[in-house]
Write a structure and sequence with these properties.
Layout lengths: L1 H10 L10 E7 L2 E6 L2 E5 L2 E3 L3 H7 L5 H8 L3 E12 L11 E3 L8 E6 H4 L8 E8 L12 H16 L7 E12 L5 H15 L3 E3 L9 H19 L3
Parallel strand pairs: 4-10
Antiparallel strand pairs: 1-2, 2-3, 5-8, 5-9, 6-7, 7-8
Helix pairs in contact: 2-3, 3-6
Length: about 240
């Protein structure tokens, strides 16, 4: 995923402000003024490709209704641990990409991905790589654990699910606070209404993110594409 971002960055390197944080958005005539920690930027259109929480903060003054709706979207924090094991220490099905763990088990683990099976370039034949997830909207135990405690708990869960009885060669812990949007019944319809309200209150401002259609990569790409199409249609760009 990092490779994709790097290549996209190379294509628009002269237009990126890597060290500028947008503080506020204000309207002047038919344009938008973006106040940043490095000064002001003027734009005909603005696409907020941020989390729902950050978008809500930036839209407070220009589209209060949209801001309120986005603030209502709940998010769950997650912690991921990537493990590397000796091939001889762990046995995973070669024709599977991983598994999900239901709430009813009481485990800290929520999912396990067999990285080498999902992405062939990660399987070098010398190690087995897996990634284990933890965290739900109603289970934030992982937030109370240190990295070492989190790893120990997840290894215990791997012992139950995969029969693991060995320690990893190495591991990496990645924590994502309030990262996964939680979709209630009727979410898509509500998002359609929110986008329509934004168009009325702040024409020329668009939103894009994983809180639209789903937290997966294809759903996020769809959200970005639709925002780009909306900009093109508004300004008649061919």
């Amino acid at each position: 995923m990092g490779h994709i971002v790097e290549k996209l960055t190379e294509q628009v390197s002269e237009s990126i402000r890597k060290d500028s944080n947008v503080i506020s958005i204000n309207r002047t005539n038919q344009q938008w003024i973006l106040e940043t920690n490095a000064g002001s930027e003027i734009a005909d259109a603005v696409v907020l490709a941020t989390s729902a929480q950050n978008a809500a903060k930036l839209l407070t003054s220009v589209s209060p209704t949209t801001s309120s709706r986005l603030s209502d979207i709940e998010h769950a924090s997650v912690s991921l641990v990537s493990f590397a094991f000796k091939n001889s220490d762990i046995n995973i099905p070669k024709d599977q990409s991983g598994f999900l763990v239901p709430r009813s088990t009481g485990m800290l683990m929520t999912a396990c991905s067999f990285s080498g099976n999902k992405w062939a370039h990660l399987n070098d034949g010398s190690q087995t790589l897996i990634r284990v997830s933890s965290g739900r909207i109603d289970d934030q135990r992982h937030d109370t654990l240190s990295d070492e405690e989190l790893v120990k708990h997840l290894i215990d869960d791997l012992a139950v699910t995969l029969g693991l009885d060995s320690q990893p060669l190495e591991f990496r812990v990645t924590r994502w606070p309030k990262a996964l949007a939680q979709f209630k019944i009727g979410h898509l319809q509500r998002m359609e209404g929110t986008i329509d309200l934004l168009a009325d209150e702040a024409p020329g401002v668009f939103i894009s993110g994983s809180y639209h259609f789903g937290v997966g990569i294809p759903a996020s790409v769809r959200s970005g594409n639709e925002a780009a199409v909306s900009v093109i249609e508004k300004f008649g760009i061919n």
